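Feature request, filed as a ticket because there's no other form

It would be nice if the structure record came with a short human-readable summary line next to the tokens. Right now we just get the raw output. Example of a typical job, pasted below so the devs can see what we mean:
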Amino acid sequence: MSPALSDRLAELAQWPLDAQADTVDRHSAARLHYLRHDGQLVVREIRAREPAAAKQEDDEDARSASIRLFNPLDLPNLFKRTKASDNHTSDEHRQAEGRVELGEEVLAGALTSEGTICGMSTEDTVQGFRIVAWTSEKLLVFEYACELKQLYAVDFRDVQSVRWAEHDRYVVETEEQFEVYRLQAVDADGNADSSVAQHNFQPQLVHRLSAGPHSASCISSSSEILITSGHPEEGSLHVLSSANGKSKKKQLWLAPPTDSHTPTVSAVLALEVDNIVRGYTDGHLCRTTLHDLCRGAPPKVSASAALPGRIAGLHVVRHPRTQEQLIIGGADDGSVALWSADTLTLRARWTLFLTPLTYVVQLPDVKGAPLRGCALCVAADGTIAVVAVDSLQMVYMIPGAIAELRAICWQPSSMMLLYADQRARVWDTATRELWRAVGHDKAQEMLQQGGWTEFPLKENQCVPDLPLQGTTHPSASSDMNAVLHLDLQRFVAESSTVAKAISTNRAQTQTILATMDRLRVLMGALVTPGLNEAIDAICARRLGASSSGVHAGFSSNGCTALYTSDNARAPWCISPAVSAHRALAIVVILRALSVFEEYADSTNTVITFYAAALPACVGQAYRSPSLPFLAQRWLEGSQEVRHAARVLFDASAVRMTDDEAGVLVEHWQHQLPCLQPPAEQEAASSAMALFICGYLGAEKYTLMSTHVLTDISKSIALYLHDEHSTHRVLAIELCSHGFHVWQHYVDAMEVLRALFLLATSSKKDAISVQNPGAQARAALLAIAAAATPLFMTTLSLDVLSPASAEHRRSVMQVVAFLIRKRPLVLYPSLPRLMEAVVKSLDPNSTASRDAVLDTATEIIRQVVKTFPTVDFHGGTQRLAVGTSEGAVVMYDLKTAIRLYVLEGHKKRIAACSFSPDGRRLLTLSLEESTVLVWKVGSSFASFFNPGAPPRQGHSGWGALPGQGGWGTGHAGSEPFKTFPFNVGNEAEMTVTETFEYVKFEWTGDRNVRVKIRQSVLTLST
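Raw output as currently delivered:
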């Protein structure tokens, strides 16, 4: 499992060299070797630049730049390279040197005085390096260790290249074969002898590998060489090997035969997800849909006329007055045409360029501008054709330059063209004349004055902004130009929004059904039928995913890889990253389909298969998804992608052995955020380290040392408490997933308090990394269930003694949230929680009471509504709270004090209820099969004994039909009346069931009906 973080390449440096291009070689990471044009071998060290030196140089550049800004600007001579340009080139050179630099030249000597060196290759040795070089007639081998020494020279003609294979073997490539030679140590007489101190060497032929005509080669070892032959689109890939002295040639891949007379796709343009225009090698256009494209169905609409060459690019512009969409296409012969996007009717055609059309820029519709309503068609050589879209006429041409055109800057009266050689040309759009040519500094000064609109020529400007994009570049191969790129994250997000919408008309219903159909089509293109018959049946019959003829590949950083195979197991045997990529795409699509209720069960089954059952179906060649890849996608992805990445990450982590998990954690643990300097704590590598170590630590914490778990916990707290951290959501997710582990290594109460504040943030806009309220609320629910005692202790303490009024309000909002979402979590601690809520209403603390009054009132209302063991009487402002021990605690909300405790029951109270006038309280215990009636109204005696329960004042029988009842007058322990009952099995229920099946219905101040499931008890109190 590779721990690679990213495949993104960054330029470190560039240096101009006085060298023969074919002789530049860097076999070692620390040295560069090349031949100068005078034949001298040069050795230069490659080393990292000193940070202080780099900073000093940057400071000098900044001071120099600030001085130049205040100097008067001279108009340059357009025919002479200006000093400013020279300075700019120097600045560019210093900037490009970046983080590495070349050492001074060390001249090793001349390789030969006879003939010209055609090329060379180097190989490191213990004391230096060896060189093999060749001329048109000789092959020479040298050794360098402080000085250059020639080992031998032999006659050799028709050499195409020579490369080292191992430390003492090199491969000579000719037109028809490869010859492998070994450096053989010999004595003075030419006999093989490796015992002498001063070696002489001679070449010894090891074997020959017959290749035949070939176009490219790759030497993996001296006994295995890959070669290609034929045209890239019609060729083959072979491997050459040697066994028992015999040369073998094995074909690995053969391009499928193509009919040269059959047109193939050369350009693709997506106008909409279900409106795709394809250009062909015969110059024709056609229209198709995503569904037909995946099924291989023929196009439904074709253009009425064609271009005379291969379609090399397709773009779309709008008519400035009618807003009609027009397609601009270019062929490889330089011709350009406009078609109607609706009907594919040809509207205009010209032959404008010598090279194919590459970019189209539609200028803004500015009233009075000379080029209002025009589009700029840019050819590969930088030539620009100005086309009037409204009148369908070619206005004029702007010639190209030697350097590549990088950007077009436009303002109503001028156009500036920026080139790769740091020069710019400014054209007057009114007179159509070249106004001036300027250097980079002057061009930037003009742009900074404002009023310019810049169009960088890195991406096509005139392509619809859709999740589905085509590849339309003339330099791309025909295979690449037939590829459609799908931004799956964006596509699924948009599809989910449509699917979750409530249909109010027929058009909206059709849109929802079309979205569902597109998801099924994509699922059919991604899944790999043939691994499991049951899963194949579910996909085909229940989910409606028909077989697809397209090949799925993946794109990253501008590169695309396509995988073609008829074997269902092959896509899962390429690499961990490819397995992760494909599985992630499948799970994301299936989760989007699960929004439709009829597909929910089937999609969950298929997700489980691709997440957990693939190894058994694919076999030993299966490459388990890369956990670093999934971690990176979680950090960068949307909510849909994050959920899918977590599913696959957890499934892969479960399959890992303890040793594999230990190796992975050992690799990443040193990059945890708490171990990094402050400047690097927010780096992607630090967040990935926390993701991988955190989730593995939550599942396999017994394998990790205490200091690793401590570092993980500190890193979680670091992100959680940092208000500006972009990885706060990650910390919240890890709190939700492994709080039972992290609570032992950090201040768990402070972590909970941070989650309280995040969960009740006042920001109600879209969820983002800066407003992760939904994630924090989900984490609190998980923690409340897993660590209930700690959670309730923190909650109660913060209600009674908050750090601030704002914090108390947040905590009480959390309580209200838990009552709605997880009432059973609060149930065991309900008496303690209600006491804290009541005390928060202390009238002696006016400011605090006013701050929480609304929230506390809402909590009490929700508690009474949810829990039958709590009841409130508004007239008397009394609150009764039943406990699991059988006692009932009575509170007075006016004074925020506990009045007394009624202790008639010995077992858990299931429900209680005040009479309408507030003078009676009924308590019910299902475990005792008893209903007790208590007098709780104020009396004359209560004025002389405040805080004591009212005297019940009655000694007699209360009875149900067919049953006895009794009452006593002892306040606090004996109720006013007691009603035993027997309802059989209906009294057997869980706590959750009591919320629904135990009810009190008062028909008067002294009459009540008690419902226990289907049984009804009518009592007179």
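Something like this underneath would help us a lot:
The first strand starts at residue 31 and ends at 35.
The longest helix spans residues 506-526.
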